[in-house]
Write a structure and sequence with these properties.
By secondary structure, the protein is of the alpha+beta class. It has a domain of 33 residues. 34% of the residues lie in helices and 23% in strands. The chain is built from 1 helix and 2 strands. The chain has a two-stranded parallel sheet with strand order 1-2. Helix 1 links the parallel strand 1 and strand 2. The N and C termini lie far apart (46 Å). 0% of the residues are buried.
Amino acid sequence: MSYRVLVIPEDFRKDAMVLQPIVEALFVHLGRKAKVIVCRSLRADTAASPRDR
């Protein structure tokens, strides 16, 4: 069985390059195939930010 994994980091600029290999290694260790994608959106809550109102 193969998995598609979406990782949503708190701060993608600092964490994206570290999280992808760690999560891939986790699934290899578990003996599972996984396609890991790290979300690279700048801010998910930009439109809902109180500063924008």
